[in-house]
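Hey team,

Sharing the EamA family transporter RarD run so nobody has to redo it. Sequence (302 residues) first:
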Amino acid sequence: MDNSQKGVLYTASAYLLWGILPSYWRAVGSFNDYEILFHRIVWSFVFMVILLAFTKKLSPLIQETKALYTRKLEFIALIVASLVITVNWGIFIWAVNNHHVLQASLGYYINPLMSIALGFIFLKERFTKTETIAIALAALGVLYMTITIGTFPIVSIALALSFALYGLMKKVVNINAVYSIALETFITLPIACLGIALLTSQHKTYFGMNFESFLILFAGVATAIPLILFSAGAKRIPLSLIGLLQYISPTLILLQGVFMFSEPFTTTNAITFICIWSGLAIYSFSKWMGYKKRHNRKKIET
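Structure output:
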């Protein structure tokens, strides 16, 4: 297996694991949504410490953290990223356990186009004609759902925006992906511990001698492993290919919402998704053609 094939395998595996997360969160659905989020942070941090200790990377992490602290802009960006991804996790867990899986799926379909929009606003990137059409189609789908149902798809937009903001912050921070997730969970760890303590004092915690408590111990593994696989895969394949593979995750979420959790897929849902899928197809085709042109140009030059 060559390096490129490994890249596809690692990246596809990451999106596959992200795609089946709804089933995992439903399996621990007896927990309060906040408690699930707090445990996810705690056990993610614990898993990362164990992983870094096992691979003898705790000392490099400490050195990297000290260096990062001197780069104030990057340090602030990492703090913002930590808070934003925590909000994203919380919204997703709430959506899954409150029968909004289709909206969650829609949010992650919209996410690439939201990232383009943030690049336009904050990084002064400019839309191509193709990207403009793709964003317009996605906006049309959201507008149609809002007018038809009379409710703005706030869950979808919140998930797409929070994850796009997380990606934007990560562009600013120059740090190894494994170190980054360790620091992100460390930054939010006090919030999680305080939250669990508060829930315990109010007798609203479910954690104890039960099977779901055993399952939630793996929240750290479920969080960190896809990120590590994605980091390993992204280094080996072009961005355009990552863009195509990323639709594995929302597609699996959509299928679970319809066939496992029996959420209704209405005509309004169908039209909305078709608009967004069309926009994503146009966008993905444009990126792939751009990659092919650059690849062919390099072959000619060499």
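The mean pLDDT is 88.

Ping me if you want the raw files.
A.
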